Amino acid sequence: MWLCVQVFALRDAGDLAENATAYVSLEPCNHYGRTPPCTEALIKAKVKEVVVGMTDPNPIVASKGIEKLRNAGIDVRVGVEEALCLRLNEAYIHRMLTGKAFATLRTTLSMNGIVINQIGSGADQPGGYYSQLAKEYDGVIISSDMAKATTLPVSQEAGAKQPLYIIIVQGEGSELHIPFLDEESASNAIVLADSPVTVEPSGVSVSVLDQMNLESILRLLADRGLCSVLVDFRDAGGVLVPLLSKFQEDKLVQKVVVELSPVWVVSPGPSDLAFGGSQSFALKNVEHKEPCKLEPDS
């Protein structure tokens, strides 16, 4: 979710902000949202100069913030490190231009290409890749089977705000019990179902969708203010498969994170990633990190 942190930074700086230079990756907003306009805060703080990485694609802003600052006598430089800022703000930009949340697909594969419900040892600990992902994304989409059977994804990073849990329910009975949620944390989860369902603990928001597909889900989440979601895929025969059937052709997934685990797994059922569309496609900007070590089964 997007908050105007400039307002809080200026409050913390106090009188030190006067005649200072402010560096921002995104054009300061000029409208009221969860916080007052950043432009008003910058003008009130009497900053001398504002260095802006990129203009805001939000039509409500769209250079109006820059114009207001200049009209107030503040020097403004625009487009500094723009390529880097475009990457930093990619989820926000995607939501503004498409009306959908930015989606990243994450899964773990064995050495023989089997999808496994396991992540590497240390991956969910401070500094681990999964802990960092949980901190970076506004929400995590998981299946109802994962919600019922495993600990929900959390970030162990210092000061991390935990993601919203988005639990997909299809063809379930009339009840769903989520053992790792309590009444206090229930508000940090939503259930998206194709038919009415009663959820325990109470307090979990339930939405019954007319159309259960990934595009509808991503639009719903964007309307709720989420910019980015992690689709945590752990079961090749589970409820998430239909949602991902044409994710590449429909341009619904922007990134893919695959953990390759040093194990060889025999699977009696569906086990691979045979979805995404009817044509093969190349992945761009592929990055490599050292794999995590998996603890052997006891």
UniProtKB/TrEMBL annotation:
SUPFAM superfamilies: Cytidine deaminase-like, Dihydrofolate reductase-like. GO terms for biological process: riboflavin biosynthetic process. One of its GO terms (molecular function) is diaminohydroxyphosphoribosylaminopyrimidine deaminase activity. Pathway: Cofactor biosynthesis; riboflavin biosynthesis. It holds the Pfam family dCMP_cyt_deam_1. Residues 1-77 form the CMP/dCMP-type deaminase domain. InterPro entries: CMP_dCMP_dom (IPR002125), Cytidine_deaminase-like (IPR016193), DHFR-like_dom_sf (IPR024072), Eubact_RibD (IPR004794). Gene3D superfamilies: Cytidine Deaminase, domain 2 (3.40.140.10), Dihydrofolate Reductase, subunit A (3.40.430.10). NCBIfam families: eubact_ribD. This is CMP/dCMP-type deaminase domain-containing protein.
